[in-house]
Design goal:
By secondary structure, the chain is mainly β. It is built from one helix and 16 strands. It has one domain: Ureidoglycolate hydrolase (Jelly Rolls, Sandwich). The model has no long low-confidence stretch (mean pLDDT 96).
Length: 162
């Protein structure tokens, strides 16, 4: 029997223990560029044990629902920020840490214009766009040493729409 996880909307409150929701919610912190641009300042807490922040592009194949979740990963040496470049929402899967292992996952669906930043050491699913294009800018740690842990579930989860 496959365990089911129901997708929920991505909100700051629901996601806070796993990372940051990055969006233009609320009023801008500043108006810049001759009054033509709102700046929504400092929306994510980037954290790295060592190394430096790097910007990469990921081009992921779209997945479909229901989605079979077999594995989660985490990056113990740095945070990881996913910024969609195609104007589409995407599926975000996270799990609490329970004594060094992932607990029961949660699944969120972003709205267009939302990005996420996983806190350092947060268990999360792989990049999961549900529509093309699956192009993302990713800000994460560039540096020496291992920064990836994977855990494969003995029994997968099935991620389903609400």
């Amino acid at each position: 029997m496959t365990r089911q996880i129901v997708i929920q909307p991505l909100t700051r409150a629901a996601f806070a223990r796993f990372g940051d929701v990055i969006d233009c919610a609320g009023d801008p912190d500043k108006i810049i560029n001759q009054g033509q641009c709102g700046r929504y300042h400092d929306r994510a807490q980037l954290e790295f044990a060592d190394g430096r922040a790097g910007v990469s592009l990921f081009n992921a194949e779209p997945r479909s629902l229901p989605y079979r979740l077999e594995m989660v990963e985490r990056h113990p040496e740095g945070s990881q920020c996913f910024i969609p470049m195609g104007g589409k929402g995407f599926l975000v899967i996270v799990a609490p840490d329970v004594e060094g292992r992932p607990g029961t996952p949660l699944a969120f669906l972003t709205e267009p214009g939302q990005a996420v930043n996983f806190h350092r050491g947060t268990w999360h699913g792989v990049l999961t766009p549900l529509q093309a294009p699956g192009l993302f800018a990713v800000v994460d740690r560039i540096g020496p040493g291992a920064n990836l842990e994977e855990v494969w579930f003995e029994e997968p989860y099935l991620i389903v729409p609400a």
